[in-house]
Amino acid sequence: MTDESLIIQSGVASLTFMVYDHLLTLDDEVDTIWSKPNKSWLKWTFIGTRYSCLAIQMIKCVLDVFIVARADIDISAFLLREWVMCQVVLNMILLTAVEVVLMLRVYALYDKSKRIAVSFICILLARAASTVTGVLLNLPPHNIRLCEVLEVIPASFFYFGCATIASQLVILILTFSKYYTSAHLSQSRAPIVSLLIRDGTIAFFTLFVVCSATAVMTVLHSPVAPVTDFWLLAAISSSGCRVIINMQRLSVEEYTQTTVFPLTTLCTDYDPQSESYEIDD
Questions:
Q1: Class of domain 3-263
Q2: Fewer CB in a 10 Å sphere around the end CB: N or C, the chain?
Q3: Residue range 164-212, pLDDT digits in tens
Q4: Distance in angstroms (rounded) separating the CA atoms of residues 121 and 104
Q5: Which domain of life is it from (predicted)?
């Protein structure tokens, strides 16, 4: 099997996985996300992450198929350079959206600590600076050819991968630290904290494996390095969207059963007339 065939098959496989995962969670998406008001930032974060990942994945697959088929596509070197550079930036933006959601949950877990907020802001800024620096230090050649888009992965993925691993590790450590230092978690907090740990751990190891593989293959200049980019998008889409859905589903279940400390949201108001909670997302 040639490297080109492997890359194409991996692209199709990752796209199929994303569509399958989308269909599995579509009912929950409609119930917990689409029903939210249009002013909800969480709603647009979810929609932007899920459908942007899907659109980018489709574009990459179609472009790679045309490259392998040696189709006569007239694409200027300028546009190819922009596309190669934008791949890293787009991944950074999409992953940042997911990490903001994870960070806000940990921020709520620490009772809106200013130290935690400042730490997370610094982490996001440092990751953005690291990624942009990587892009600027590894600009594609001005005479880049169409075939090179499939054959190579931007070297800036190394900077992005290392920065992502570091930020995810901080989120995971803070979540476990709070859980183990809270010897007497209230009954209302326990299910939510357990969900935070479960989803945070799964998201960490999923992104850790993919980002580590991306960073290593980028350094080694592996001909199959583009494969990791496909699965990075799939990991961002699946883990990020499932984290949001799970938190919103638990939020609805808790509010319909009993009055609890609202860790799943940063602000919750109870309307005695409608006997329902208004969640400020």
A1: mainly alpha
A2: N
A3: 888 888 888 888 887 776 655 554 455 666 777 777 788 888 888 888 8
A4: 11
A5: Eukaryota
Q: Which residues pair with 277 in a beta bridge?
A: 270
> What DSSP state is assigned to residue 261?
-
43 vs 243: CA distance, rounded Å: 13
Single out the residue of 63, 222, 68, 94 nearest to residue 158, CA to CA. 222
DSSP 3-state helix, strand, coil percentages of the chain (rounded to 5)? Answer: 75, 5, 20
- Token pair for residue 240? 């990020």
Amino acid at 233: L
Q: 115: part of which helix (H) or strand (E)?
A: helix 114-137
| Total Cβ atoms within 10 A of residue 78 | 10
Backbone angles phi, psi at 158, to 5 degrees: -65, -45
* Domain residue limits, the chain: 3-263
Other CB atoms within 10 Å distance of the CB of residue 31:
13
pLDDT tens per residue, range 137-167: 877 766 766 666 666 667 777 888 888 888 8
pTM comes to 0.76
